[in-house]
Amino acid sequence: MNIPRLREILARANKKRLLVIGDLMLDEFVWGKVGRISPEAPVPVVEVTGDSLYPGGAANVARNLREFIDHVAVVGLIGSDRGGQQLSELLLKQKIDIADVIEDDSFRTIVKTRIIARNQQIVRVDREKVRSPSPTQIPRVVECVLRRLPQIDAIIFEDYGKGFLNADLVGDICKAAISAGKIVSGDPNPRHAINWKNMTAVKPNRNEAFLAAGIPWSDPIEPPDQDESLLKVGETLLDTWDTKLLLITLGEQGMMLFQKGNQPHYIPTKARQVFDVSGAGDTAIAMFTLALCCDATPAEAAEIANHASAVVVGKLGTATVTQEELLASFQNDSLV
What we know:
Helix 4 (137-148) runs parallel beside helix 5 (167-179) and helix 9 crosses helix 10 (323-335). The chain has helices at 3-11, 58-66, 82-93, 137-148, 167-179, 206-213, 228-241, 280-293, 298-312, 323-335, and strands at residues 17-22, 24-37, 44-57, 71-75, 77-79, 102-104, 110-117, 120-127, 154-158, 183-187, 201-202, 245-249, 255-259, 265-267. It has a single domain, classed as 3-Layer(aba) Sandwich (UDP-N-acetylmuramoyl-L-alanine:D-glutamate ligase). It is built from ten helices and 14 strands. The strands form three sheets. The chain has an eight-stranded mixed β-sheet with strand order 4-1-9-10-11-12-13-14, with helices on both faces. A four-stranded mixed β-sheet has the order 3-2-7-8. It is 35% helix and 26% strand. By secondary structure, the protein is α/β, with parallel strands linked by helices.
């Protein structure tokens, strides 16, 4: 894709309105340095120099979209605890709509704490309890989303396997949204038996795709478009989910786009250095869906998502990509 075409697509982005539904989390990063081994156990002692808080999970998808659009909302579940308050404050500060986020006194906000020393993750501590919305909360969520449908362009379901998304919730919303002519995409989790049928697009990573297709894992092959197991997985999921588009992210290999009636389209990675892969999938589903909303072709949308993910993995922490960084990535690629 040339730069003028990319600018044409991005010029349409600001007026779009997207809704992200899924597992909301708070990502905490504790930064420090290691100078010695603990005398109590053979583990490093991290001397803390600072800490950072970021919206995580589905909230990070919304955060990525907010770099390009003015109107993005999230729907999910948080607790009335300190983590929930911190996450709400972060989202409001970034002007992300949280009007339909459910605050539940009995729920503990999901918090992931990563301890980083010398650009390396030492350990991750998860505070979470997997729990689905209550029988009274599910119809409330569906009602809120249906009320928003006339004002939005697309819905992204972000499933981290923490329980917020279930088959009934996804099915009811997806059916209504597709009938209303909206773009609907899903980022699945293999631990959840959700039928992603009839969506505009679904974006699993390679491991998730193999698990969802029920095909035994096999090591990646170069080039990926000659990987027979991967190609079989793509064909199987296109048929099983009956989705228009299937984008499988392949880590350091890039991405593979599957579309009914078309040959699989391979997009090599654009990452030049990898510091942190946390949140790269969030960026991919956000930018792929947004690009489709802006009338990009599926191949163009996949290319944009690929470049955006490449920028994000070059940063430490749960990061986002800006419009300037995305343009620079395409410009640098054209010079190679």
